[in-house]
Amino acid sequence: xxxxxxxxxxxxxxxxxxxxxxxxxxxxxxxxxxxxxxxxxxxxxxxxxxxxxxxxxxxxxxxxxxxxxxxxxxxxxxxxxxxxxxxxxxxxxxxxxxxxxxxxxxxxxxxxxxxxxxxxxxxxxxxxxxxxxxxxxxxxxxxxxxxxxxxxxxxxxxxxxxxxxxxxxxxxxxxxxxxxxxxxxxxxxxxxxxxxxxxxxxxxxxxxxxxxxxxxxxxxxxxxxxxxxxx
Length: 231
Description:
Number of helices: 8
Strand order of the largest sheet: 2-1-3-6-4-5
Shape: elongated
Number of domains: 2
Order of helices and strands: EEHHEHEHEHEHHH
CATH architecture of the largest domain: 3-Layer(aba) Sandwich
Low-confidence stretches: 227-231
Distance between the termini: 38 Å
Mean pLDDT: 89
Structural class: alpha/beta
CATH topology of the largest domain: Ribosomal Protein L4, Chain: A
Strand content: 5-15%
Number of strands: 6
């Protein structure tokens, strides 16, 4: 698969060849959905709580006199049948756990397959050298229009903050643009946005990095082990 590579002015300057087989060959909707559900569920804190009528803030003064009004007899406004009142069966259990998991190799295959789905739909904008001499929101907005981004976009930048600092600052105030590190791309983030904007070097590093280990080597000889042991 040959994917166009753009410069910061929106001109196509090269073509990048990506092996479809390394991304799964064909789009696997069931695998992508499983990963999406997992990432989504893992965002839940499980800390929902509700208050009883004794915990709701408000006056305990009697609403009106007991007799002579023609209305039902009531005390204060905290019972469950009043708006703003407490709950009859308030949630008071311990923190609920919604955490889901997938095998490492399945998770990586799903992330790579999600990238394949975006590539098939021409929703990946690869930039040869995405950098600004200074933070400028208008310059970044002009860049998005130049490359044809007209909907919600995910901007994947280098984890080297000094290198990507100006781009990061330029993108933070643009509507419908979210920023993440390129080495943290997931199926959930990619599918939550119409477009993926990523630098050529960052995409090549992601394709050849730990996410490429979808076989037995993912456990027997994982990438980055030596660096972690030294640290």
